[in-house]
Specification:
The complex is a heterodimer of chains A (241) and B (269). With 241 residues, chain A is of the alpha/beta class. Chain A has a six-stranded mixed beta sheet, sandwiched between helices. Chain A has a four-stranded antiparallel beta sheet with strand order 2-1-4-5. In chain A, a hairpin with a 2-residue loop joins strand 4 and strand 5. In chain A, helix 3 packs parallel to helix 5. The longest helix of chain A is centred in the C-terminal third of the chain and has 16 residues. Chain A is globular, with a radius of gyration of 17 Å. The longest helix of chain B has 33 residues. By secondary structure, chain B is an all-alpha fold. In chain B, helix 2 packs antiparallel against helix 3, helix 6 runs antiparallel to helix 7 and helix 7 packs parallel to helix 12. Chain B starts with 8 loop residues before the first helix and ends in a 6-residue tail after the last helix. Classes of the chains: A alpha/beta (241), B mainly alpha (269). The interface between A and B is large, with 36 and 36 residues.
Chain lengths: 241, 269
């Protein structure tokens, strides 16, 4: 569970988060939606410990991020927007490094790479990967952590439709396993039928909650976006166990 | 769920060391550095006959000051900048920055320190080994380590590759020429003439000058013409290798501290 109370963050005179309150519960896929510049990425970076807040508190699975940073971050896996890796290291070397950093056995790496279709690229330096392959490597590294709280910032941007669907199935599956899943996105058309909750943020402030099936009412231009294609049953997904 | 099976600090440091080692296998800065070191090490072989031993240290002094120090600095800088895009991953890990930086720095220290042995090896193999050569080589290792860690610090503070490069080269120029020019300009000032130890202190604190003076003392058996002007110059002339060892150790520690402060900065902005 993620609890955010009165979170504030400014960059100089620009107030990005003015007073953000969030309660993200386990067992469901929660979207964090808002227009460009609403503060979604900043909120996720603060929750992930990458950016120090000016005020407010972040609690992850009962651990205060400021006072119990290590315990809080141990329970969290964060997928940043447009992730990049050390350009001279291969896919396998990167994945093995992060497995070691999270105390996971390196035996788990091949399965994680395989789940995201990266096995055939394991000897390729990450600097030579396309944007989509890099995103799939990031998802493999992200899932390797095996953390109970999953934070994702625009995770589907570089993926093709097939892998976007796999990602959505993966997240729904993780939610069903009791994980807390928070996805910041503005590709609402893809998520409206896959998300369980939808939290609105505008001008760095919480604007309440919206049922995902009412996203089109709130965002009228949504109808012109890609609607994400047909929903595949979770049971047919590669991530079901 | 395996959420708290976090590795020890040592485990993280070992993982970082291994990663650094692997990443340098394709690093052109490392190969440029090794080529420079090997070339510099072979230069003394151009000195004929009995002069080889003394000439070797002289060659090494200049090669280290004008080339190896810069390549070490750039090696450290490239190491930091290669991670720049990955900070959002690295800083979000529960292991923290310290153990990761420790492993990374250790790999750089081993790479630059050990590669400095190649500076003295050709002369040694040709029978030109001497205490002066050993001193010049060991001092070169210290200077190379300081420069690589300084490059790492610059790279973590200035994450833009072009700005980082400009800052690193500017720092190198200041250490190599800037400080000396300033000290030369101040040498005639009445206040400096009255307190020559202050002038000497400034010279002693610069690792490039400390290395230069240490090797010159060893090779030329030379000393300051104004040794009687202050007790510090005399002490330095007697204990130059010891001072160089202490100074490179302290500079390495400070550079590592600066690198840690730079790396732990959040990814704000």
């Amino acid at each position: 569970m993620i609890l955010v109370r009165d979170l504030k963050k400014s960059f100089g005179s620009r107030h990005v988060l003015t007073s953000l309150d969030l309660a993200v519960e386990p067992g469901v896929v929660t979207l964090l939606v808002g227009s460009n510049g609403a503060g979604k990425t900043t909120a996720l970076r603060v929750i992930a410990g990458l950016s120090d807040p000016d005020g407010g508190t972040v609690t992850i699975e009962g651990h205060d991020l400021r006072r119990e940073r290590k315990a809080a971050l141990a329970r969290l896996s964060f997928l940043p927007q447009a992730p990049r890796f050390h350009p001279r290291l291969t896919v396998l070397q990167v994945a093995e490094f992060y497995a070691r950093l999270r105390g996971r056995p390196t035996d788990a790496v091949p399965a994680a790479l395989d789940a995201w279709g990266m096995c055939e690229f394991e000897r390729v330096p990450t600097g030579k990967l396309s944007g989509g392959l890099r995103q799939r490597l990031a998802l493999a590294v992200f899932s390797l952590a095996d953390a109970p709280v999953l934070l994702l910032d625009e995770p589907g941007l570089s993926l093709d439709p097939e892998w976007r669907q796999s990602l959505q199935h993966f997240l729904r599956h993780e939610a069903r396993r009791g994980r807390t899943v928070l996805v910041a996105t503005h590709l609402l058309g893809e998520w409206e039928r896959r998300a369980d909750r939808c939290l609105l943020i505008e001008q760095g402030r919480s604007q309440g909650e919206l049922p995902p099936d009412r996203l089109r009412e709130h965002f009228p231009r949504l109808g012109r976006e890609d609607d994400g294609g047909p929903v595949t049953p979770i049971e047919s997904c590669a991530f079901t166990s | 769920m395996n959420t708290l099976a976090l590795p020890s600090r040592r485990g993280v440091a070992c993982a970082a060391l291994r990663r650094e080692w692997l990443s340098h296998r394709l690093n052109r800065f490392l190969y440029a550095h090794l080529a420079l070191v090997l070339t510099a090490g072979a230069l003394p072989l151009l000195t004929p006959g009995d002069a080889l031993a003394r000439g070797a240290a002289w060659w090494l002094l200049h090669a280290v000051l004008y080339a190896v120090s810069l390549s070490s600095l750039l090696l450290g800088l490239s190491s930091a900048h290669a991670e720049a895009d990955e900070f959002v991953w690295l800083l979000g890990q529960p292991a923290g920055v310290g153990p990761w930086l420790g492993g990374k720095a250790l790999a750089l220290i081993v790479l630059t320190g050990a590669s400095s042995a190649l500076l003295g090896l050709p002369t040694l193999l040709m029978g030109g080994g001497s205490p002066e050569l050993m001193l010049a080589t060991a001092g070169a290792a210290g200077v190379a380590v300081v420069c690589s860690l300084a490059g790492l610090a610059v790279g973590f503070w200035i994450r833009d590759s072009v700005r980082g490069l400009i800052a690193a080269v500017a720092m190198w120029l200041v250490l190599l020429f800037g400080m000396d020019i300033l000290l030369l300009a101040l040498a005639g000032a009445p206040a400096v003439q009255a307190n020559p130890d202050w002038w000497i202190v400034a010279l002693m604190l610069n690792p490039f000058d400390a290395y230069r003076v240490t090797v010159l003392f060893a090779v030329e058996r030379a000393a300051f013409s104004g040794l009687n002007a202050g007790w510090l110059a005399g002490w330095w002339a007697t204990n130059a290798p010891l001072w160089l060892a202490v100074l490179t150790f302290v500079w390495s520690g400070l550079a590592l501290l600066a690198a840690w402060l730079g790396a732990r900065r959040r990814v704000d902005g």
